[in-house]
């Protein structure tokens, strides 16, 4: 079981799933949005977490919808899961996970901002390439061999 839990924590979405269940029970769609994995991966991690005794399921309080004939399940952490989470906190895994998710969000936002900027500045970008296509950022011609000070022949490969 110990090796299985260790292996589980290495799988995509497992750590995020435990982190987001730490303080409250959550529904599938909430977890899907928070953890950032595909629905099939989330289903697999939830089932594996249940099999390992880290996660349990309950029917949501007063969530039985007679009109739709559906029952809403909530996922929550077990005592074993809490023990693992305590160690995740101690070893700063939870903190690292949250930092990683924030960095991922900044990357997504930055990439989108960059895409918009590129679309809005096509002419400037095209002109910059046309003017300096053979020069580096210092204005040096990159098509000519660079002059080298000193004798570096000892570092060159010999045939």
Task: Describe, in plain words, how this protein is organized in 3D.
About 15% of the residues are buried. The protein has helices at about 1-10, 15-20, 30-35, 40-50, 80-90, 95-120, 120-130, and strands at about 55-60, 75. The protein has about 160 residues and is mainly alpha-helical. It contains seven helices and two strands. The protein folds into two domains: about 1-90, Winged helix-like DNA-binding domain superfamily/Winged helix DNA-binding domain (Arc Repressor Mutant, subunit A), CATH 1.10.10.10; about 95-130. Keywords: Plasmid. This is Transcriptional regulator, HxlR family. It comes from Natronorubrum daqingense. InterPro entries: HTH_HxlR (IPR002577), WH-like_DNA-bd_sf (IPR036388), WH_DNA-bd_sf (IPR036390).
CATH level-two architecture of the largest domain? Orthogonal Bundle
CATH superfamily of the largest domain: Winged helix-like DNA-binding domain superfamily/Winged helix DNA-binding domain
Number of separate helices: 7
Strand content: 5-15%
Q: What would you call the shape?
A: elongated
Extract low-pLDDT stretches. Answer: none
How much helix, percentage-wise, in residues?
A: 55-70%
Mean pLDDT: 88
β-strand number: 2
Give the termini separation.
57 Å
The CATH topology of the largest domain:
Arc Repressor Mutant, subunit A
Global structural class: mainly alpha
SSE ordering:
HHHHEEHHH
Biggest sheet record: 2 strands, antiparallel
Q: Give me the side-by-side strand order of the main sheet.
A: 1-2
Briefly, what CATH class of the largest domain? Mainly Alpha
Radius of gyration: 26 Å
Q: How many domains?
A: 2
